[in-house]
Amino acid sequence: MNQILLTRQSPTKKNPNNPTISLEESLLSEGYDIILGIDEAGRGPWAGPLYFGGYIYDNKEKYSFNSLIKDSKLLSEENRELCFVKLKPENRVFTRISAKEVDSLGLSEAVKVAILELVLHVLAMPKCANKKIIALIDGKYRFNLPIDYKSIIDGDRIHYSISCGSIVAKVLRDHEMRKLDEKFPQYGFKNNKGYGTKMHIKGIEKYGLCEEHRKTYKPIREYIARCEQTGKRKFLRTNSNKFFK
Question: What strand order describes the sheet that includes 148-153?
Fold first, then answer.
């Protein structure tokens, strides 16, 4: 049976922004073999995919503890990249949900699908076979997972494995947004990462939407409705007619 714990915890006064490995080590002492820290990147942007990053913490990981690790939102882009490189590649995992899937599933369901896919991926890894695993997930969602888990509000600032997962998600999503900027330079994706900045809004107003925009998000829905009322072209002109109608 899944172990469900919804909590709100606070960082210590001594280190308000530095996560610890105390929970991970406690869970290992209770008999778990692997702690899987999970966090997401890309929930709020108007465009681009949603990423969930995971990091595998086991009984060898405390010897690789990196004091630079923090919630990805508290790190500069340069330091996120440095921390990402220092995380063991074999312990980094992720799932990706496209903008189209976010629209079709809805954000809440997309989160559940992504988390389940991530967990199933970890269970299929040879190093995780026949291991007792628990996931530490940032947030307050409830899931139907084949492993135990704890949902922890603000967990990305408190627990090391979740902070690592947040870095994995953020760095990989940023990499993709930079590639999307090359494909769709009209919106400034390499700088705004899909958030509704002034440049992004100007790009939409001038060129219309692209296939990476989330059509169910309120600002995009309102733009589409406004275009339909005025007869303005909604979508960016491309060589493909599969999407842009």
Answer: 6-8, 148-153, 133-138, 34-41, 50-57, 92-97
SS3 213: strand
Give percent of the chain with pLDDT exceeding 90.
Answer: 81
Measured CA distances, 139 to 9, 70, 96, 164 (Å): 11, 16, 18, 15
For residues 97 and 50, is the Cβ–Cβ distance under 8 A? yes
Span between the terminal Cα atoms of the chain, in Å: 48
Global confidence as pTM? 0.90
pLDDT at position 82 is: 95
Q: Give the start-to-end residue ranges of the domains of the chain.
A: 6-180, 184-230
Strands 6-8, 148-153: parallel, antiparallel or unpaired by DSSP? Answer: parallel
CATH architecture type of domain 6-180: 2-Layer Sandwich (3.30)
Per-residue confidence at 5, pLDDT binned at 50, 70, 90? Answer: low
Is pLDDT at 127 greater than 50 in this prediction?
Answer: yes
Those residues whose C-beta lies under 8 Å from the C-beta of residue 128, and which sit 6 or more positions away, are 34, 56, 122
Return mean pLDDT, the chain.
Answer: 90
Distance of CA 89 to the CA centre of its chain: 17
* Sequence-distant contacts of 198-201: CB under 8 A, at least 24 apart: 200/46, 200/47
Average pLDDT over residues 209-220: 97
- Contacts for 104 with CB less than 8 Å, ≥ 6 apart: none
Structure tokens belonging to residue 15: 């280190």
3-state helix, strand, coil in the chain (%, to 5): 45, 20, 35
